[in-house]
Description:
Chain A is mostly beta strands. Chain A has strands spanning 4-7, 10-13, 18-25, 31-37, 44-50, 53-57, 64-70, 73-79, 87-94, 105-106, 110-114.
Amino acid sequence: xxxxxxxxxxxxxxxxxxxxxxxxxxxxxxxxxxxxxxxxxxxxxxxxxxxxxxxxxxxxxxxxxxxxxxxxxxxxxxxxxxxxxxxxxxxxxxxxxxxxxxxxxxxxxxxxxxx
Amino acid sequence: xxxxxxxxxxxxxxxxxxxxxxxxxxxxxxxxxxxxxxxxxxxxxxxxxxxxxxxxxxxxxxxxxxxxxxxxxxxxxxxxxxxxxxxxxxxxxxxxxxxxxxxxxxxxxxxxxxx
Lengths: 115, 115
């Protein structure tokens, strides 16, 4: 199984809402990632978790709060978002974040719209 | 900081034409290089990757790429494209820094193959 799943596929939320994005993989990978992809732009790294610990935070605003409850799950909690946060949020996983040669496997993404 | 540039933003080819997509990166150290593809409505998938050894790497679906260290390039090629190759192609550089890997994507090239 080389699949990374993400729920929900689409999410529409107001600026005062609190919502969460979920990501799951069952490949035994110990590194998981959140990316943000705006229309017609490449994915931009937001967070890296390695062995369930936050390793990299690319200066992401605090209204985005990641959580890794176990090695298979990765959440992104959203609160007080702005319309400019509307984007495709991609989750990825790889065997190990420390190797430098790992292939990242991507999920289909959650299309987020902030009204 | 590392960066990746893709020269062609939108390429239109007829079926059976040859393809070459350019990718240049800016980093003087050791890098690991990838090409990802995103078919319409699908998630990012790995086409091929280069870590070391033979600079000419072969990937899935008849794609290949050549790493030329002196030119900081990793161009993607296919001798004869098919309509099903219509997709967006991203070059990516994986830099191992501070104990963790960090992937930077190029801006992407949208390939449209006309039957």
